[in-house]
From TrEMBL, chain A:
It comes from the Bacteria. GO terms for cellular component: membrane. Residues 21-269 form the ABC transporter domain. This is Phosphate ABC transporter, ATPase subunit. GO terms for molecular function: ATP binding; ATP hydrolysis activity; phosphate transmembrane transporter activity.
From TrEMBL, chain B:
Pfam families: BPD_transp_1. It is found in: Cell inner membrane; Cell membrane. GO terms for biological process: phosphate ion transmembrane transport. This is Phosphate transport system permease protein PstA. Gene3D superfamilies: MetI-like. It comes from Thiorhodococcus drewsii AZ1.
Length: 274, 301
């Protein structure tokens, strides 16, 4: 027997109980020659919140951004595997990533409103899609669902950048949901926010899952237990000389936190809590 | 028991610090001296500027701000011992040629800036183009005139078109560098947000990068226009001069700066007065564009 025969760890596939909206099967994700993530199967269930947790650099953002081809903007990025969305592989040759992103929206770690009025920020996506209906009504609806309407209804003409950090993040959420995408990806949406704003965004997410499917990266274990229905735990493998991220375990949040199958998960979670 | 004496203080309490200004301390004297020096230097630097403006208003204002303002602004330049007359053709010529320069340099400058600032900021072509543009900003303006003379005037003769092209050569690097600077200031996360909404690259540029950088771009454009309006050297070789209103773009054309040059050397009192008037008018035009640049440069959001 040679040394390479020792098989790499691969997580047992998570059997989703409900409808799977995005079925992500990563074989390998590269940045140039650097293997960032390997062998991870991450199904995203409809009308649920899927949380990604794990140590820094394990590839949570990389996997999340692969779900709407945001990583295509990085030239050295290369994805091997497939991401099935409503029966189509979004990495298929004929698929236009721009169209994918209109169905699978994104909220970023840092609030990033455009330098336009609050109203124009929310209306941006509607105008982009040449929305024929009542734009004003949709803007109000989006701001109400983002729990921001009462704070900004008298100053819709003000700059989006004049809001506080928490308000800006809720504005970005309103902007993302104004076009009523199917799935919303959030990369540490609360890391720039204080505890009160964090609570507001969390409550908002719980409301949003009635209509949307959400996937979220978080560094905050409590946050994962508070909002995620399903949790995927990633880790970094340094044994091969590189720093390759991979999925360790995925399951219902309760099970992951109370009765993890893998030793690694247990250590990570207890380390975080104690 | 304990032999620590608690009745007398072992350490003297610190003397109260003195917090008032110490006018005659060395440090304070030095600081005062330096403050005065900078004031004097600033005053000296302002003297030439203020005296030029004073002279212009004093010598040029009498004709411009008087009942004959209509004649001065629209009349034809006087010949010889003629009295009266005005700077009409030169005023229109300057505006037309600056307009041509702007029409050529603004679109090219902004499109090139999109390439340099957004599409390929670090390609070899971009680095070289940026360097050349910076060199061009320090280019002696007379060489722009000579260049256009050699390329266009020799074949087609003196014309407003040639003058406008020479001005465009001078305006292009200013517009380009200002626009590139403004667009590369647009934060990456704003562009990410637009891509995340499902924008194509074209839409990201048109809907986010250009509007966000617009104030900076406009400032550059206005400064380029103000600079071009005052140029005389490139027009000497390209537009020459004319005593009549411009009727076609392919004829020699008057401009304020050349009129000033011609008339200030004449032995006639009337022409010399008009040269002063034209100088004042030119300064006011340049000032107007500078103020416009400041107003447009204020960001709305
Ligand atoms: N644009 C990039 N170019 C090259 N390597 C990258 C790039 N982005 C990420 N990486 C690498 O990929 C690996 C995974 O990064 P990723 O950002 O996905 O981690 P993460 O789990 O989101 O970490 P964090 O919790 O700190 O955000 C890291 O080793 C990182 O250095
Ligand atoms: Mg990350």
């Amino acid at each position: 027997m040679n040394a390479t025969a020792e098989a790499l760890f691969v997580a047992e596939p998570f059997q989703a109980s409900g409808d799977v909206v995005i079925d992500c099967k990563v074989d390998k994700i590269f940045y140039g020659d650097f293997l960032a993530v390997r062998d991870s199967i991450v199904p995203i269930e409809k009308h649920k919140i899927t949380g990604f947790i794990g140590p820094s650099g394990c590839g949570k953002s990389t996997v999340l951004r692969s779900l709407n081809r945001m990583n295509d903007l990085i030239q050295v990025f290369r994805f091997e595997g497939n991401v099935m969305y409503h029966g189509q592989d979004i990495y298929a040759k004929k698929v236009d990533p721009v169209v994918v992103r209109r169905y699978i929206g994104m909220v970023f770690q840092q609030p990033n409103p455009f330098s336009m009025s609050i109203y124009d920020n929310v209306a941006f996506g509607l105008r982009l899609n040449r929305f024929k209906g009542d734009v004003e009504e949709r803007v109000e609806k989006a701001l109400r669902s983002a729990a921001l309407w009462n704070e900004v209804k008298d100053k819709l003409k003000n700059s989006g950048l004049s809001l506080s950090g928490g308000q800006q993040q809720r504005l970005c959420i309103a902007r993302a949901i104004a076009t009523e995408p199917d799935v919303l990806l959030m990369d540490e949406p609360c890391s720039a926010l204080d505890p009160i704003a964090t609570r507001q965004v969390e409550e908002l997410m719980l409301e949003l899952k009635e209509h949307y499917t959400l996937a979220m990266v978080t560094h905050n274990m409590q946050q994962a237990t508070r909002v995620a229905d399903t949790t995927a735990f990633f880790s970094v493998d340094i044994s091969q000389g590189g720093r390759t991220g991979y999925l360790v375990e995925m399951g219902p949040t309760r099970q992951i936190f109370e009765d993890p199958r893998e030793q690694l998960t247990k250590e990570y979670i207890s380390g975080e809590f104690s | 028991m304990s032999d620590i004496d608690l009745t007398t203080r072992a350490i003297e309490p610190p003397r109260l610090p003195r917090l008032e200004h110490q006018t005659f301390e060395i440090r304070a004297l030095k600081s005062g001296l330096l403050t005065w020096l900078t004031w004097i230097a600033a005053g000296l630097a302002a003297i030439p500027l203020l005296s030029v403006i004073y002279m212009l208003i004093f010598k040029g204002g009498s004709r411009l701000f008087s009942s004959s303002i209509g004649e001065v602004l629209t009349g034809l330049p006087p010949a010889g011992f003629e009295m009266g007359g005005g700077i009409g053709p030169a005023l229109v010529g300057t505006l037309v040629m600056v307009g041509i320069g702007a029409l050529i340099s603004i679109p090219i400058g902004i499109l090139a800036a999109i390439y340099l600032g957004v599409l390929e900021p670090s390609s070899r072509i971009s680095t070289n183009a940026r360097f050349l543009a910076k060199v061009l900003t320090g280019f002696p303006s007379i060489l722009a005139g000579v260049f256009v003379y050699a390329v266009i005037v020799i074949h087609f003769g003196y014309s407003a078109m040639a003058g406008g092209i020479a001005l465009a050569v001078l305006m292009l690097p200013t517009v380009l560098l200002a626009a590139e600077e403004a667009m590369s200031q647009v934060p990456q996360r704003m562009k990410d947000a637009a891509y995340g909404m499902g924008c194509t690259r074209t839409q990201v540029i048109l809907k986010v990068v250009l509007p966000t950088g617009l104030t900076g771009i406009l400032t550059g454009v206005m400064l380029a226009i103000a600079g071009a309006a005052g140029e005389s050297a490139p027009l000497l070789f390209t537009a020459l001069f004319s005593n009549y209103y411009i009727s076609e773009l392919n004829e020699p054309t008057a401009s304020l700066s050349i009129l000033i040059y011609n008339f200030s050397g004449m032995p006639f009192q009337n022409q010399i007065e008009l040269a002063w008037t034209a100088s004042l008018a030119l300064v006011l035009i340049v000032l107007m564009f500078n103020i416009l640049a400041r107003i447009l440069g204020r960001s709305k959001y």
